[in-house]
Amino acid sequence: LKRVLESQRSKLRSDAGLTYKDFWGSYERTLKGVIMDGYPKSLIAYGTGGLGKTYTLDKVMEANQVRVYDQEINPSSDQYDAVVIKGGTGIRDMWTIICKNRDKLIVFDDCDSMWDPSQESAQNILKGMLDTTGDGSVRYGQAGKDEDGIQLPKQIKFTGQVIFVSNLKREAFPQPLISSRCGAIDLTMSKDETL
Predict the structure, then answer these.
(1) pTM for the whole thing?
(2) For residues 111 and 109, what is the distance between their CA atoms, to the nearest angstrom?
(3) Structural contact between residues 107 and 82, judged by C-beta atoms closer than 8 angstroms
């Protein structure tokens, strides 16, 4: 089945006259649009692991002088433009990140646990803050305190952007999110394309 899907994907791209360079170029342009213009407001880049999704994102952020939050320095809010979260994140941690960075670029890199069906509350928060018809207002009624003991708000207005980088397949993402809230780029490549 995997070989059949790879063959079909390659044939579709070939029939459309697209090469791997074309869709990687599209990925770079879309990243720049999210980062610099805020359009689209969010992007899911998914596909086979080890292809350079994160590497390309890092290069685009560097080229556009995006200042990434460094926890060791602990800069003030006006000293950074983006925060990068890698690995698993739970709903309370996600809410803290969103509240503290509501006007920033938030990158969730390989935070695949947030797409698990058991994480419906987290997915609903993401859908609310990325709703293209609203103003980014979102509520989490069980908001607790941050790591400094300060009470987090139960409602915020998210005005930033979000980029998700994942090795999952398209079907693993909640369809209302990927089909109506986020731009989505499939960067899956066959072995021949990868080589």
Answers:
(1) 0.86
(2) 5
(3) yes
